[in-house]
From TrEMBL, chain A:
GO biological process: protein maturation
InterPro entries: Hydgase_assmbl_chp_CS, Hydrogenase_HupF/HypC
Classification via Pfam families: HupF_HypC
Protein's recorded name: Hydrogenase expression/formation protein HypC
Molecular function GO labels: carbon dioxide binding; iron ion binding
Domain of life: Bacteria
Family: Belongs to the HupF/HypC family.
SUPFAM superfamilies: HupF/HypC-like (SSF159127)
């Protein structure tokens, strides 16, 4: 039930925004976030629950570079 | 670090058996879809937890919904997942077949237009879910207040995951670490797991839902266990902040307060409900249900599945008499219940 999907804000109308979710345009409530046009938001049950910092692919790349840094810092690892 | 190096290390692990609970049903699905088990050592067991709100909703709650739907000029509004869950005598699908009025909505906020359009109908929204969904109920009530909508109420069964994790840590000592739920954490924040990690000395790693997210989180857990650490690590930082979504949390504090709650298959967990505060009881459609004591169906192992003691395939009813079309236990009913996910993927 806690499924959420990212979408890009393309227009804001008061408490709602038009959001592009995988090329589908949908209206989403944005009252829980400070979203601007061009931002990516995470959408759950018709509502943006967070502004996300970029595309998920970038996030995954940074995740693995973080693991790499940890590995060198971690004295217990071999 | 390359993903293949992560897989190689996880695959070649040959130490003590390790049990990691993934709390969220969406993680369970992703583990199957991405074939994560085939990429890690059989000594690393990934087990499901209580993270399907539909599965842990009481039969007494479903009964209230079905009874309401069968009254003249009354209509239940619900997420689709709730339709097949059995009450003591019937599900919402069966109530609808018997003439009850039940409508599936994608968002609680859609209920507002529905109620304004049909003022002669009394609506009840089946407000189930965890912290991810709860702030949307608060937004819904804000709008009901502003627009003076009086023919719509909420039947709340809103549960919080931290008390449930505390309950599990207290009783299930052989779980070594937790994959914390990504979207609950968006609201509650990484910080919400710190006390648990400290008290029970277990790693809590917050993960996103891509296969790479999960592999990286399992790798992080294994590294912590190897070096004797028990930390909260946020590996879904794109979406999860240290303190979560503070606007959403403020709304939750405004509308809800903590109370004890019944979890189907588990029993009462202290302070695990978000109940409407007294000053907002005008939005409450009779959510308080006292003295629930429901037994699981005979032979059903949903309790053991929810608490991570067994996997669904270890239940004698799984795939024999319990299937998605004829679900005996609640974990088979929902597409996010552990048994439903195992059925679809095995």
């Amino acid at each position: 039930m806690c499924v959420a999907i990212p979408g890009k804000v393309i227009e804001i109308r008061g408490d709602y925004a038009r959001v592009n979710v995988m090329d589908n345009i949908t209206d989403v409530n944005i009252k829980l976030v400070d979203a601007g046009i061009g931002d990516y938001v995470l959408i759950h049950a018709g509502c943006a629950i967070e502004v996300i910092s970029g595309e998920m692919a970038e996030d995954i790349l940074s995740l693995f570079s973080e693991l790499q840094e940890d590995r060198y810092e971690d004295p217990g690892s071999d | 670090m390359k993903i293949q190096e992560v897989i190689d290390e996880l695959k070649s692990y040959d130490g003590q058996p390790v049990k990691i609970m993934e709390v969220c049903g969406t993680h369970t699905s992703s583990i199957f879809k991405n074939g994560i088990r085939s990429m890690i050592s059989p000594k690393i067991k990934l087990i499901s937890g209580p993270g399907c709100p539909v599965c842990v909703t009481s039969a007494a709650y479903i009964d209230r919904l079905t009874e309401f739907s069968l009254k003249e000029d009354h209509c239940v509004l619900t997420f689709g997942d709730m339709m097949k869950v059995k009450g003591s005598s019937m599900s919402l699908t069966e109530a609808k077949a018997a003439g009850g009025k039940v409508k599936i909505l994608y968002s609680p906020l859609m209920a507002l237009a529905e109620a304004r359009e049909h003022k002669n109908i009394q609506y009840l929204f089946a407000a189930v879910g965890f912290e991810t969904t709860a702030p949307i109920y608060a937004l819904m009530m804000e709008e009901m207040k502003q627009k003076n909508i009086t023919n719509l109420k909420l039947l709340t069964s809103v549960k919080t995951i931290i008390p449930a994790l505390s309950y599990i840590c207290e009783r299930e000592k052989n779980i070594d670490a937790f994959l914390s739920p990504g979207h609950v954490s968006v609201i509650t924040g990484a910080d919400s797991y710190r006390k648990l990690a400290e008290k029970y000395k277990k790693p809590f790693v917050i993960a996103g839902f891509e296969g790479e997210h999960i592999l990286a989180a399992v790798y992080e857990i294994m590294r912590q266990l190897k070096t004797g650490r028990y930390e909260v690590k946020n590996m879904y930082a794109t979406a999860v902040k240290e303190k979560g979504n503070e606007k959403a949390r403020a709304l939750l504090s405004e509308y809800f307060e903590a109370g004890d709650d019944f979890w189907r298959g588990i029993g009462i967990i202290e302070n695990s409900a978000l109940r409407l505060k007294k000053e907002y009881e005008m939005f409450d459609g009779g959510s308080r249900i006292e003295g629930i004591n429901e037994e699981m169906p005979k032979g059903c192992k949903c309790t053991d599945v929810i608490l991570g003691r067994k996997n669904p395939a270890e239940c004698p009813l799984f795939k024999t008499v319990c299937t998605p079309l004829h679900a005996i236990g609640p974990c088979m009913v929902s597409s996010e219940g552990a048994c439903g996910i195992w059925y679809q993927n095995s």
